[in-house]
Amino acid sequence: MAKQPENVLVFIEMDHGKVAEVSLELVCQARELADTLGVNVDAIILSGTNVDIHGETIISYGCDTVHTACDGRLEFYETLPYAKIVSDFIRESKPQIVLFGATAIGRDMAPRVASDLRTGLTADCTDLQIGDHEDKKQKKTFKNILYQIRPAFGGNIIAAIITPEHKPQMATVREGVIKLSAQDRNRNGAIKPFENIKWDELQFINTVLERTIHEKKVNLKGASIVVAGGGGVASKEDFDLIKQLAATLGGVVGASRAAVDNGYIGKEHQVGQTGTTIRPKLYIACGISGAIQHRAGMDQSGKIIAINNDPEAPIFNVAHYGIVGDLHKVLPMMIKAYKGKS
Amino acid sequence: MPLKLIVLAKQVPDTHNVTADAMKADGTVNRGALPAIFNPEDLNALEMALEIKDRTDATVTVMTMGPPRAANILREAMYMGADAGILITDRHFAGADTLATSYTLALGIEKVGDVNLILCGRQAIDGDTAQIGPQVAGKLGINQLTYVEEVVNIDKKAITLKRTLGRVSETVETSLPLLITVTSSANRPRTFGAKRLMKYKKARTSIEAEKEIKSSSTTGEYGMELLLDEIEQKKKVLKSKGLFIETWSADDVGADHEQIGLPGSPTKVKKVQSVVFAASELKKVEPTPEGIREMIVELIEDRTFG
Question: How far is A99 from chain B (nearest CA, A)?
């Protein structure tokens, strides 16, 4: 009997009628891993309505087979039924790698699935690679295993985690850390319903009395220009300068953790490891010292302008333009210069 | 019968305040140089449990797995209002990842028995994995609700609570038993009660009680039996005053040694590195109108502004 190919599986998350951006990023990453390993990319998608149209999109980013589970009861995420379906699918399809987005849902479900399958799970990965591992004690080499790379210890170090002796190797991956590759609309792939769902074993035991879906107010990830303020901004009023510059340049307002903690602006604006990872064309860091956790969320930006009155601030190490000075004076100059030139 | 609540807590190094002297030359963190604190979101979970206790008939027990010094956070929990603490400690737990840890904690919870609600922080600041809550619920085979912000109502059979999952805020009613994870925005943990502090600073784990008796005893080797007697006596006294912190080993909770510590942990750390950023070529710009105008022109010309 032919050995079952050990594919790379991606859990596709629906974000209110659309495929979540992070899920498409994962498909791109899975494609790369699968090509290195010589296997296929599978995806599984649970939804309340027919999702075949989304299946085409998922395939266009590099997936080979999209497995669907569509039923009205699955319209909204609920831990027990979702985790059970995904666990059962993994038991049946035996992937070697399973990837989830490190979203609220992914971080709720993936640990439960890993616990059920008694395998390892690495949370919040920022990079995935294939490599070997030599276990000196056992005098054994594990070939082509998954390096699950993530920040640890509050972001102060980067650790590569492996799951050498258990399958599947599971990871949740941060949104925005993988670049979407180009779509190929002509790519061939299959969309298949997952038929072996044990409906009578699924427990739908939560009753939702009220549900509010909040608008996504800030689109940090989609912005090509981000103007961000940090702890060096003197007050909430002064933070308006950041907003003015952002408005002048047609950019979006970002913030460091210090600015959010100081109450200058909401957490949805936070850039960095605990906020959003972004790579805009231009990132302007105003009064941001550049803690590791912040830099990790923006250092891939096309151009970085750093404004800080401390010439030793670490933000200057990743910046392309460094302005040592008082942002309360520099920002108005920038607004004036831009208005005069554009 | 009062509602039985368990709060899972972890003693963590204070990673949010990593100072330069806490970093070693090779870029790794010197755990020993960081103060050990009560994991912040576990305090929110404890506060939520105590609020339930404030308004209904309930007992709150705080459970932690960790080294003997983790008893400190159990005492802190009692200063805030917890009824009891349980320390699960054993050198065989060393190297445990989330799977092995959740297995161990689930056994501890089963040993307590008939628990209605388990609360824990969303995640711990040393690992930020947010995996322990869901995995403990998984091991116990019970339902879970993560990112909880408020318990609206609770009785023996059902609970109503508010939670936020990404962009969706929900008010959910579900049955007990249940495990919930609590976020930092849920509440503001209360401070220590002065009277409680005076009382519970005398609370001891069995390890601490033994140590104290041994160090104050002059009997030496020959008096071993006497010593053991004394230890048992001390534990009895502590128990009668509600000051004994239950101290359980791997065997006490009936753990399979293959599923705890390093052997029970599928994930291994392959490599640890300090964070390195590719240095950029930095152009110094003078904070003058001329300097800034020049930079803006450059950025317009290379189409950075779109």
Answer: 15
